[in-house]
Design goal:
single chain, 609 residues, alpha/beta, FAD/NAD(P)-binding domain, seven-stranded mixed β-sheet, five-stranded parallel β-sheet, 27 helices
Amino acid sequence: MIIFGIICVALVIFILKYVFSSSGPNPFETDTREPLKKMVHDKKEKNKVLKQGFVASKVPDNLDAIIIGSGIGGLGLAVLLAKVGKKVLVLEQHSRAGGCCHTFSEKGFEFDVGIHYIGNLLEHQSFRCMVDHITNGQLQWEPLENPFDHVVLGPPENRRRYPIYSGRTRFREELKKCFPGEEKAIDEYVKLVKKVAQGIWFLAFLKLCPVPLAKFLVYTGLAKRLSSFFRMAPCSLTEVVNKLTENKDLRAVFGYIFGTYGNMPKDASFSMHSLLVNHYLNGAWYPKGGASEIAYHMIPIIEKAGGAVLVRAPVNRILFNGAKEAYGVSVMKGQEEVHIRAPMVISDAGIFNTYQMLLPKELQAMPAIQKQLSMMKHGEGGLSIFVGLNGTKEELGLKADNYWIFPENNFDELVENYMNGKREESAKKIPLLFVASPSAKDPTWEERSPGKSTLSLVSFAKYEWFEEWKDGKVSNRGSDYKELKQAFIDSILEVVLDVFPKITADKIEYIDAGTPITNTYYIGAPKGEIYGADHGIARFSPELNAMVRPQTPLKNLYLTGQDVFLCGFAGALAGALTCGSVILNRNLHLDAIALAKKTKILNTKLKGE
């Protein structure tokens, strides 16, 4: 036991030495925030940045890197590299940049695709500092209401509503008001969530340390001993909350946010769940001006360093030489291939697209590639419904908050029956529904679209339910497809009109649904998934996280984004930081923390003066 303790101490010293050692250029060296410029609302002006179409003449010379995909994992990494003088080309297959951060307009309504609310954005926190840094301080955030979430359980005749407040103390105290007698369970839950979330640093370390060390930590079991995150990762959300309380509604409230990563509670890792809960404990925010502001303020930084972000640029394959080294990509321009060279290729297209669609067959077959693919599986398909309404937020009873609506508190049973049912039957019994109003969250909305409002409704659906129409024309997939979509829309709308009584059918000016095959077309999700590879319990094994890292088994080819780290805006950005750490040979996670501390100290001094 003493020998084991000595080994652990020596290992921790080595780990700390490795973690804090950096030799490459630091994109967080200085605070690059600039005074706020006037917001641009003119769509034509914004499209000059967001919709720069691909032609070979726009490709910069002497590129340092090519990034496939303009999601936040791709754009974030491109900005980090641009900050140290790298010339980067970002290629996007869609008609606009941003990935799940892009917006689209229909019938005069602007809709966000994937940004509903972001946490951890208090001033001087490292995450806020990082987001400010990669947008040069131009991206503004508007706090949501408090309570920011509402959990709604039960059928219309027996609806129970539970408000979720931010604030590390208030979160607990408000829950205790809703569930008298459950104070101990609530305190234990919050304590456990915080403890597990704090262990996330070790996930980054496993992906950055040398492979032999990572394997040693995994196979000796030290990864679980040293990290609360990995220690609790095999425990399901259902397993943990069921031990804390017998109250079924409280169990449901503890677990309601499982929809933000897409696994039913019995298949969800409590560690992943803890990260999400902890992410919002200090509040929730929405980008002022809508989600398109994110890419809009990042692209100029890439361009300033000599790079470019080009859309309508579908990469059909990565180019390799005889030594299995990536040296560029092929982009389809009409029926012709355009070859673009660079010393490194980085994919933000997801691990399945990268390995199964963009590699030559002989490289796909490599045991190391197949090993990684065997450890991952596709996430569930996303179902989104976009509603354009006639009326202001006050007239429609909308606020800057979110509703999580469930027909009952037995989440596992609801989701399982839904996913295993026939599509026509499942359309009538949606197990969870996220409802938010982007227009109510954005203080610039009324100026841009007076007298109008929008709703974003999100759930899940099986890709297989819609797969037969995947090869149809996106704007006209046939009457059967429309009828199936309408069945989901009608079922969901019935719930929304009941929960929001000021919204009536005659107020609806526009409504349409985005199914899993819609996601495949617009954001390149192979099975319609919106959170990338599945985030179930298996995703959080130490072995998988030691194996799936920014470096691929092929020289000069790297991965970034949510499949490298975790899902969502923050997870994909963490993937960008992790990939950037490998490329620049320094720990960018720590650099971002250091800049946040330096900025806080400087601001404190300025206020004191």
